[in-house]
Task: inverse folding
């Protein structure tokens, strides 16, 4: 008669243990969905900001903008062609 | 015992029926029930792929994507309709009465405006108006405004309302740029609020579009467009175009058309302006065609640069027609070198007759005239070349000086480039590589179209063309110190069976440096009014751009 009582006690303990473990784990992960959602929102926000910043960079680095900005600050187009002819080797080391 | 068996059989039977019924619902009807369930807790939504970018050779996205917003309202949630209409009207520049009308509808979702900037969205957000919402979208953005508009094409919508590229690169590479649409199930709660998007499998995600990298050099394109615009204004032309190509690879470095259009507001422009006239318009090339005929005669060893023209002392009569030179000046006994230098029509009649009909038709074919070049742009056309038995004697004679035959500018540029590239004709190409969404780059190698003339003929023709630049009609505009091979062209415009004496198409085609060309350029002005000849209009534009190209490439003077 002692053996079934022991088995029953062990089973009850396991059940209690599992219930407690479940409660602890559930408690811990219950807010991770929210955190995940917040992380997702942050990610979308940064992605959107990146696209908007890229758009601004492209607008400011466009040749149309650069040339008009250069003209308005007093730069003028150079009409002289300056090119350095490639040097010819006068001796080759053996 | 018998009662026991009856009860057992009864329960076995009941159990069997239940098993069968379960099999029916769980296996046979599984898919149907699953989709019925899905419609109760969610709905299928489309995942729009992000369109690939178009980059110039320096990696600058000349056609990129920007975030814009669709502004919508839920009229049932809007409390102060008058204030809402007023705020939206002010921020979105839409008539207030129109917005009030939208707000009066008995609907849950009413779109108000599309393509709204993030700045405007922020301003509306700041007003905290209940019932107003935003949907994020991507739309095409052109950082260089309408630069290369006719080359790039534009993005519009197809019959289903999906994004679709039209004309130019956008049209030709639409399937690559567009990507593949995905789908997902949007799950919602009991109140219909979306919870999260569940994607059925990996394939249903779709794929974003690939990006294409062009051979177009942004700086050179900018220079070409600027100089062409200035030239059109200076010479009072109705339009113009310019293309610059690397003759060794066929890479299109720049291509510009005017008048043009603004891709962002393409719907406000006439359909005619969408066309890239460099590949879609046919015209009679005039004198720019002469070097092709002359090089054919050189290649067949029928003539040499020193060969004399026996019938260049006055107008030539062929098939009952009197054929004159462009300025009615004649140079008796001139050499073929001088025929090209003076752009002498009578000398070219002699050359064409010497070449003969069979050779003429054969070389027209070898130069690819009458066939599309295969350029990777939507909208290329090709002229129809008459069959050999339909040619009259006068057709052969006028073809010698580029009248009575139609070409597209890209055909002529491609054919002429063979003179610059040792007789080898390359396929013109706008895109240099394609990069998929994972960053895998696929290069597009240069393609040889044919070898219409030998290397020796190309070298001789180059010298003839250098002489034409140095001593011809356009010598006043040339850049001293550089060896440039080129030819002017002034083509009459056929109108109702005759040529219009007051209107011309002025052009200049050439390449430099002559011995090792870095570029070949073709400039065309449509109906210039200040002056009508190519030497006075297209040539200075050509040399103006060439000067900048020498500076850009750091090419020193040779002489």
Result:
């Amino acid at each position: 008669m002692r053996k079934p009582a022991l088995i029953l006690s062990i089973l009850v303990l396991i059940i209690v243990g599992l219930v407690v473990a479940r409660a602890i784990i559930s408690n811990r992960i219950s807010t991770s969905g929210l955190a995940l959602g917040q992380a997702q929102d942050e990610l979308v926000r940064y992605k959107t900001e990146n696209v908007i910043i890229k758009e601004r960079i492209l607008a400011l680095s466009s040749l149309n903008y650069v040339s008009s900005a250069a003209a308005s600050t007093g730069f003028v187009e150079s009409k002289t062609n300056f090119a350095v002819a490639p040097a010819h080797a006068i001796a080759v080391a053996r | 015992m018998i009662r026991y068996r009856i009860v057992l059989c009864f329960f076995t039977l009941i159990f069997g029926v239940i098993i069968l019924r379960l099999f029916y619902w769980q296996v046979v009807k599984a898919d149907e029930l699953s989709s019925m369930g899905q419609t109760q807790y969610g709905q299928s939504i489309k995942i729009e792929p992000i369109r690939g970018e178009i980059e110039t050779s320096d990696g600058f996205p000349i056609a990129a994507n920007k975030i814009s917003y669709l502004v919508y309202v839920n009229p049932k949630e809007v409390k102060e309709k008058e204030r809402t209409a007023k705020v939206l009207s002010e921020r979105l520049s839409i008539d207030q009465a129109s917005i009030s009308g939208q707000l009066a509808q008995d609907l849950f979702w009413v779109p108000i405006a599309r393509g709204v900037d993030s700045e405007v969205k922020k301003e509306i957000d700041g007003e905290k108006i209940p019932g107003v919402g935003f949907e994020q979208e991507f739309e095409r953005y052109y950082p260089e405004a309408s630069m290369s508009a006719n080359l790039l094409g534009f993005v519009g919508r197809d019959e289903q309302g999906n994004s679709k590229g039209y004309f130019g690169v956008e049209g030709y590479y639409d399937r690559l740029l567009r990507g593949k649409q995905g789908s997902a199930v949007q799950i919602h709660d009991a109140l219909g609020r979306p919870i999260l998007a569940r994607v059925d499998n990996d394939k249903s995600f779709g794929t974003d579009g690939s990006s294409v990298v062009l051979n177009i050099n942004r700086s050179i394109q900018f220079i070409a467009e600027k100089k062409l615009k200035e030239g059109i204004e200076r010479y009072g032309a109705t339009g113009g175009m310019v293309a610059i190509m690397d003759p060794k690879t066929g890479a299109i470095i720049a291509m510009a058309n005017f008048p043009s259009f603004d891709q962002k507001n393409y719907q406000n422009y006439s359909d005619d302006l969408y066309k890239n006239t460099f590949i879609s318009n046919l015209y009679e090339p005039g004198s720019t065609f002469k070097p092709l005929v002359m090089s054919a005669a050189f290649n067949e060893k029928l003539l040499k640069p020193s060969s004399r023209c026996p019938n260049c002392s006055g107008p030539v009569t062929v098939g009952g027609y009197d054929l004159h030179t462009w300025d009615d000046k004649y140079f008796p006994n001139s050499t073929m070198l001088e025929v090209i230098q003076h752009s002498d029509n009578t000398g070219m009649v002699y050359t064409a007759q010497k070449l003969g009909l069979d050779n003429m038709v054969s070389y027209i074919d070898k130069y690819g005239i009458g066939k599309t070049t295969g350029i990777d742009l939507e909208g290329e056309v090709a002229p129809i070349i008459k069959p050999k038995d339909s040619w009259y004697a006068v057709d052969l004679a006028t073809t010698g000086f580029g009248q009575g035959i139609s070409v597209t500018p890209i055909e002529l540029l491609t054919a002429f480039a063979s003179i610059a590239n040792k007789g080898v004709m390359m396929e013109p190409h706008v895109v240099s590589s394609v990069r998929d969404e994972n960053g895998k780059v696929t290069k597009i190698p240069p393609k040889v179209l044919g070898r219409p003339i030998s290397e020796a003929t190309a070298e001789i023709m180059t010298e003839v063309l250098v002489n034409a630049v140095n001593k011809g009609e356009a010598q006043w505009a040339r850049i001293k110190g550089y060896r440039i091979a080129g030819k002017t062209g002034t083509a009459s415009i056929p109108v109702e069976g005759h040529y219009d004496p007051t209107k011309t198409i002025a052009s200049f085609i050439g390449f430099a440096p002559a011995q090792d060309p870095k570029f070949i350029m073709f400039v065309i002005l449509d109906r210039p009014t200040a002056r009508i000849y190519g030497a006075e209009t297209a040539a200075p534009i050509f040399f103006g751009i060439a000067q900048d190209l020498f500076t850009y490439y750091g090419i020193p003077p040779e002489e």
